[in-house]
UniProtKB/TrEMBL annotation:
Protein name: Multicopper oxidase
Lineage summary: Eukaryota, Fungi, Dikarya, Ascomycota, Pezizomycotina
Ranges of residues in domain Plastocyanin-like: 85-200, 213-354, 450-557
GO MF terms, alphabetically ordered: copper ion binding; oxidoreductase activity
UniProt KW Ribonucleoprotein keyword: no
Species this protein is from: Cladosporium halotolerans
């Protein structure tokens, strides 16, 4: 079957992870290491102060109750980045492999902006034989739709040797990340954090910044995909991750490196200050793994999910699906025994395919701790529990309240994993989708076309439909983190079996941009049609996405034709791609995204 996930009794993973080699060193400036999670990492500010405005918050009187979908500041400040993507060997956890890096770093550079700034990124593709394209996860792209950056949907891939400049407003605020949306490139390191400073209703003293959490593989993504996408008769292999990294760090036990080049590598670290409240931004950039995050001896107070701040609640363990973010507050202890603790990110075997180390750890030091020693704290109860779903929706109440109302249109969507006769595939409403790199649907809709081949799986809702509800039934034994571009979705209900019609917190349901649907369970989502564009709705597990688990939503096609702006640089990506493809035809291994 497509996903013979789960089951593998792996190497003695826990014991391995407790036992990491450590020499107290903290190198970060070479071999792809970024300074995130190192001694050199700075705490983040409350907001960026280098503004033309005289003083005060750049968003003026707007606060956490302001409806950010209809009212965001325009500061006039442009935050510019110049990035170069390259394919090179790297060893973030000590094992030598092949990565896709931006400016030589993994994780890639962090984007920082204030709410209402414009983010501008010039990307140069220096990969010799692959296209690329960056997606800014969770950004709505109202008025800047092509910069959503999905090759074959909103733009063509950026061809080798070419540059392209993305430019879009930071219209939401909070914690997120950027990642390649070209095939499964993001599984080989092409991602990094994106922090947008804005109002807060919970208060904190210190912003520890991002904790980017990910599963990690010791093979290049094309090799993993090549083995996965083989005909069933040739025994395809589902990719198993080898490690869990925190800010790109977590040394691998070289005794288990199967004879590969393996060396010592640094561990991520953070400082806590006693008596202070700390904000930590958990970002799940996994390809596949669901993660359980906990801090030994501490509670975590959840204050935001994705780009939506919520009424805070306490928990011992936070669950993150791929693409999900959760901002937590950590109260610094005040007793005399502050010491050192482990932050843990566990990929439970029931919810993730891993046959190496399945616990990522970062060292957390109070000011009284000896930071040349590793912590020896014990995990919280339930830190590795196997519930492959998010916290109950009852607990997650957005600070800025919005009522979704009744939907203009309601659609049943089924999800399956089965063969197409010869190859394993993932299906949504009986279609396993592929994109066409050379023919993005947004650009086609801009020209007034609305007919698409079945395998694009295009669902169109014109502007007379004010909101759309998807009632999703997962007929499959895996959970899937479902992501919609261009919107924060209302999450009306999720659970086991079939939906009984109950909506949780109906006048102010949870909103976010990724939500897990359980194995054999249901998920009911809804969104306002307030953003004409081409928006993929897909499973965020790289390997499921690659095998077709995609619906392409064309929102208000007549308004795309009339209003959406397509800069000439966007059409140029297609001319460059066609030219490249003519002499180097790309043999797509997968759905394309
Ligand atoms: C954490 O504390 C250590 C030891 O005092 C110091 O060297 C390091 O720079 C601090 N890091 C941060 C991010 O404050
Ligand atoms: C990593 O592997 C590459 C490709 O096999 C090789 O060229 C490089 O020298 C290796 N690096 C290290 C540090 O072993
Ligand atoms: C937001 O956080 C800042 C920094 O901790 C704090 O000074 C401010 O009081 C917080 N805002 C609210 C409404 O709590
Ligand atoms: C990231 O998401 C994946 C897919 O849902 C999940 O398996 C993994 O546990 C998540 N990781 C974390 C750290 O939450
Ligand atoms: C099944 O999938 C393979 C690989 O994508 C493809 O080549 C083949 O044409 C598909 N078969 C059918 C019947 O669509
Ligand atoms: C999908 O196929 C099944 C089995 O043939 C059929 O019962 C169902 O109606 C189809 N669903 C859609 C949306 O076409
Ligand atoms: Cu999936």
């Amino acid at each position: 079957m497509v996903s013979p996930i789960l089951s593998v009794a792996s190497l003695a993973t826990l014991a391995m992870a407790q036992d990491v080699p450590w020499s107290g060193f903290d190198k970060w400036s070479h071999n792809s290491y970024s300074s995130l999670g190192s001694k050199q990492a700075d705490h983040l500010p409350w907001f960026m102060k280098n503004n033309p405005l005289p003083a005060g918050k750049p968003w003026g009187l707007r606060n956490a109750d302001t409806n950010y979908y209809t009212d965001y500041p325009i500061t006039g400040v442009v935050r510019s980045y110049d990035w170069e993507v390259s394919k090179q060997s790297c060893a973030p956890d000590g094992v030598n492999t092949t990565c896709l890096l931006v400016n030589g770093q993994y994780p890639g550079p962090a984007i920082e902006a204030n709410w209402g700034d414009t983010i501008q990124v010039k990307l140069t593709n220096n990969i010799a034989d692959e296209g690329t394209g960056i997606h800014w996860h969770g950004i709505l792209q109202k008025g800047s739709q092509p910069y959503d950056g999905v090759p074959g949907v909103s733009i063509c891939p950026i061809a080798p040797g070419e540059s392209f400049t993305y430019s879009f407003p930071a219209e939401l605020y909070g914690s997120s990340y950027w990642h390649s949306h070209y095939s499964s490139q993001f599984a080989s390191g092409l991602n990094g954090p994106m922090i947008i400073y804005g109002p807060n209703s919970s208060s904190y003293d210190i912003d520890l910044g991002p904790a980017q959490l990910t599963d990690w593989y010791h093979e290049y993504y094309e090799d993993l995909l090549g083995n996965l996408a083989k005909p069933l008769s040739e025994n395809p292999q589902y990719p198993y991750s080898k490690n869990i990294l925190i800010n790109g760090k977590n040394p691998y036990d070289c005794d288990y490196a199967d004879g590969r080049d393996c060396e010592q590598a640094p561990i991520a670290r953070f400082n806590l200050t006693s008596g202070k409240t700390h904000r930590l931004r958990l970002i799940n950039t996994s390809a596949e793994s669901l993660l359980k995050v906990s801090l030994d001896g501490h509670k975590l107070k959840v204050m935001a999910n994705d780009y939506v701040e919520i009424q805070p609640y306490e928990t011992d363990v936070v669950t993150l699906g791929v693409g999900q973010r959760t901002d937590v507050l950590i109260e610094g202890k005040t007793s005399s025994t502050q010491g050192a603790y482990w932050l843990r990110a566990v990929a439970p075997h029931d919810c993730a395919a891993n046959d190496g180390q399945n616990v990522g750890k970062a060292a957390i030091y109070y000011e009284d701790a000896d930071d040349s020693q590793l912590p020896f704290s014990s995990p919280n109860d339930g830190y590795d529990n196997s519930d492959c779903f998010n916290d109950p929706l009852e607990k997650t109440v957005p600070v800025m309240a919005l009522d979704p109302g009744e939907p203009g249109e309601s659609v049943d969507v089924s999800m399956e994993g089965h063969s197409n006769g010869t190859h394993g595939k993932w299906w949504m409403n009986n279609v396993t989708a592929t994109v066409d790199y050379s023919d993005p649907i947004l650009l086609r809709a801009k020209m007034g076309y609305t007919d698409f081949p079945t395998q694009r799986n295009v669902y169109q809702y014109d502007s007379s439909v004010d909101s759309v509800r998807f009632i999703i039934k997962n007929n499959n034994g895996n959970s899937h983190p479902m992501h919609l571009h261009g919107h924060n979705i209302f999450v009306l209900a999720e659970g086991e079996g079939d939906w009984d019609g109950t909506i949780i917190n109906p006048s102010n349901p949870q909103r976010r941009d990724v939500q897990l649907v359980r194995a054999n369970g249901f998920l009911v989502i809804q969104w306002f049609q307030d953003n004409p564009g081409a928006w993929p709705f897909h499973c965020h597990i790289a390997w499921h996405l690659s095998l077709g688990m995609i619906i392409e939503i064309l929102e208000s096609p007549e308004l795309i034709h009339k209003d959406v702006k397509v800069p000439s640089t966007v059409s140029q990506t297609c001319r460059d791609w066609w030219a490249f493809n003519e002499h180097t035809p790309i043999d797509a291994l997968d759905s394309g995204i």
